[in-house]
Amino acid sequence: MKVAVTAVEASLDSEVDPRFGRCKYIILVDPTTMEFEAVDNSAGMGAGGAGIATGQLVASKGAQAVLTGNCGPNAYQVLLSAGVQVFTGVTGKVRDAVQSFKSGQYKASAQPNVAPHAGQS
Prior knowledge:
Strand content: 15-25%
Number of helices: 3
Radius of gyration: 12 Å
Helix content: 10-25%
Distance between the termini: 33 Å
Order of helices and strands: EEEHEHEH
CATH architecture: 2-Layer Sandwich
């Protein structure tokens, strides 16, 4: 299994980025081995469609779950359509978030938890 975590830095010791579409990095983690790949989220800098593009990036990398602070409706729909479970309200370090996910502490989100364009600066 591969889990995608939004992050402010390219490290397991990074803080979870509260924004999905406009996060700086996506950290793809194997929760069993904790091996990871950090992917620069260039879509986050675009003028529009960041959530959709980031959702497509996560799906293309084969993630089965996303851990993030917030996820808007467009990104949520892309992820849902790709069969990726979304877990929102996640905070703290990426490493700790993955451990909490592994131990079943998070519940998958049944819907987006912010309005469209909520993460724009």
